[in-house]
TrEMBL record:
It comes from Candidatus Competibacter phosphatis. Pfam families: FlgO. This is FlgO domain-containing protein. It comes from the Bacteria. Residues 47-175 form the FlgO domain.
Length: 185
């Protein structure tokens, strides 16, 4: 055998071994999965509040308080999470920044579900609470957790008859912070 033949054989062997290594490295599919980053929850929730306000400009003239409820899991209306509490509080905060009086209603064991007007959780009867605070409407909503996103429905509901005055739907990416908030019961 000549030196050229041995050299060609060695190069061919290295090429085959190199392809095998590359082939093994490319079978790991975790590197192709996109990294989901969190949205700015404050900005997203303030945007939802602004959208609700845009749809009900006359509400500010009434100068009546609003109730802010915890957002609940659409799959189990008797539960919420850290995310549901944060959404309700941040949307309520935005209404307060816009000059509304906002009374926060935190979720308790007694859950009230308003049929026909959408689901929301309150600690006591909506009419009872709204009358005691002379409230015009309730800020409430639901969320649904998907594989990569959280789908949120925010509503402004008239307290006297449960009519939906305004509604706004938006999507939050299910990044690390959102996952941790969803897991926090």
């Amino acid at each position: 055998m000549s030196g050229n033949t041995i050299l060609r054989g060695a190069v061919a062997l290295l090429a085959v071994l190199g392809l095998g290594i590359v082939g093994c490295a490319s079978t790991d599919d975790t590197s192709t999965r996109p990294i989901i980053r969190d949205a700015n929850l404050v900005e997203q929730n303030y945007g939802a509040a602004d959208a609700l306000l845009t749809r009900t400009p006359w509400l500010k003239e009434r100068n009546e308080p609003l109730l802010a409820a915890t957002f609940v899991d659409i799959n189990n209306l008797e539960t919420s999470s850290g995310l549901g509490r944060v959404i309700g509080q941040q949307i309520g905060s935005r209404f307060a920044q816009q000059g509304f009086t906002v009374v926060e209603i935190t979720m308790r064991n007694n859950i009230f579900v308003a049929e026909g007007a959408g689901e929301f959780a309150l600690s006591r009867s909506v009419k009872e609470i709204s009358q005691s605070h002379n409230a015009a409407a309730v800020i409430a909503g639901t969320y649904a957790v998907g594989r990569q996103s959280v789908f949120v429905n925010a509503r402004l509901i008239r307290a006297t008859d449960n009519q939906v005055l305004a509604s706004y739907d938006y999507v939050l990416p299910l990044g690390p912070d959102a996952k941790a908030l969803v897991a926090a019961q």
